[in-house]
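Researcher: We're teaching a course module on how sequence relates to structure. For the next exercise, students receive a sequence and then see the predicted structure as C-alpha cells, so they can try to spot secondary structure elements on their own. Here is the exercise chain.
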Amino acid sequence: MSRSRGGRGPPPGNRNSEPCWLAIGRGSAEALREHWARRAGVTDDLEAPILQVADVHDALDALHRAAVTACVVSAGVLETRPEAALRVLRAQLGAAPLVVLDGAQAVEARDAARSLGVPLWGAEPIGLEEPGAARTASPQGASSTAAARVAITPAAATTWSATELPAESPEEAAAEAPAAPTASPLPRADANAPQAVLADPGRFSDGCLERIGRLGSLIDFVLRTLGEVSSANRISLMLSEADRRMLRLRAGRGVHESLLGAVRCPVGTGIAGRVAALGRPASGHGSAGGPRGYDGSAYVVLPLGTGRQCEGVASLTGLPSDALPSDEILRSWTALCRRAGLALRGARRLQRARALSTRDALTGLPNRRAFESALKRELERARRAGSALVVGLVDVDHFKSFNDRYGHAVGDRVLIEVARRLQAAFRETDLVARWGGEEFAVLLPCPNAEEAGEAEGVLDRARRAVGGCPFALGDGFSPATVTVSGGCATFPKITSSPEDLVEAADKALYEAKDQGRDRIVSN
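Model: And here is the predicted structure for the students to work with:
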C-alpha cells in the first residue's frame, strides 16, 4: 500500500538498488542487529543494511522503495489476526517471512506461523545468510532453516479498498492480494492526474462552524466540499462508534444505501482502521475494478481529525483519470479533513448531550422535557392542519406498595418492562415518554376527530398489554401481575394550551384511580 510521503524508506522514484533486509517492528530489527553483531567476530562480512518499518502496511509500501531481498516480522505487530497478515505478506513477498517471537501476540503469531509453515525465529536455531546470498524458499516454508533463506521480489500495491470490511477469514485476505507483481510501482502523484481544486481552509472552517449544531447538515457539507475539490465519484465517511474501537459507514456519495450503517471496520485493522488509528492519510492503487466493483483503482483515505481526536475517515475512490493527487493536493485534502474531524467531534458531542438531556436514563424513553416539546410542536401542527391530537397519562397501580415489598431494584425492573410493553402497544406515529416516577405520557396524533374518538381504545389496548402477562421479578420472587390506569384528553375538544390538555388528562387519570384502577377514562 502506498502512503503519503514522509514514511520510512527512500521516497518514490529514488529506489535503493542495494539489497537489504526488511524488519517489520522494533523486535525484528533488534534481533537482526544482534545477529550481525554475533557474526562480526566470526566473519569479515559487513553488517547488512536493515530497513525498519512499523507495521505490515508500511512494509508493503517499503517494497516499492527499496530492493528488499529478505524479511523478518515481529510477532508484536501482527495484531489480532496474525494468520491473515502472514498470508498477505507471503503473497506479496513471494516467499514466507521470518517471524520473531516477541510481544503480547507471540502465542497467536506462533500458532499462525506454524499452521502456515512460516519459519519462527526464537523457537529453534536458524542459520541466516546475507541478503546477497539469499535463496528462494518454498511458499510453505517446509524447513525452518531453509525457509529462513528467502528471496523476496518487490510486490504490487495491495488490493484492499479503504471503505470495505476487512476480510472475514485468512482465505479472503489471501484472495484479495495479487498473486505476483505485474508492473513497476506507481509514484505518489500520477503523471496524468488533473489539476485539483484547492479549497479555502478558512471558509471551510466557517462552513463547519455554521452547521455544528446540525450533524446531518455538517456531514452533507463535508461530503459536498470533498466532492468539489476531488471530483471523486465515490466518497464515504466512516465514523467511530461510542467505544472508539469500531468504524461504521455512516454517509456517502455514490455509495449504495444498503451499505450505510452496515459496513464496519475495527480501528487499527485494514486501511480505514489504520488511518483512523494513526491519524495519517493513505493512498495507492488497488486492482482495477476492486473486489467490490469500485470504479478505477486509485484510492485516498483521509483521517477526520488527528490522533485520539480522530472521528473516523473519509475515503475517496473513482478519482478523475484514476490518478492519485500530488503531495500538495493530498496535504490540502488532509488539512480539510482534520478541520472537518474537529467539527464532527463537536457536533456529535452536542448531539449526544441533547439526546441525554431528552432521554430517560432508566427506561430509555423520551423524558418529560422531550414530551413537552413534542406536545407544543404537534399542537401547533394540529391547529394549522385542522386535525386532532390526544394526550394520555398512564400510571402504574399500587407502585409504592410494590416497591416497598420487593425493593427498588425490582421496582426499576418493573418500570423498564412497563415502558417496553407500552412502546410496543402503541403505533409508530405515537410518542411514549416517561413523565416521572411511575407515570408515563402518550401523544397520539390523529388526522380527524373520528380517529381521535378511538384513542381510548388504543390506550385500553396498551393497558391490557401491560397487565395481560405476569412480570418476571428475578431470582427469589414469583412472577407478579402489574396493572396500569390511564386518562386522556383530546384537542380540539380541549381547545386551549398544552398545559390545559395535560391537566385534563391528569383529571381523567384520577377518575380511573377512583373507579377502581386498571382502566382508561377519557375527558
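Model: If you want an answer key for the exercise: The CA atoms of residues 162 and 515 lie 65 Å apart. The chain has three domains: 16-155, 201-357, 368-522.
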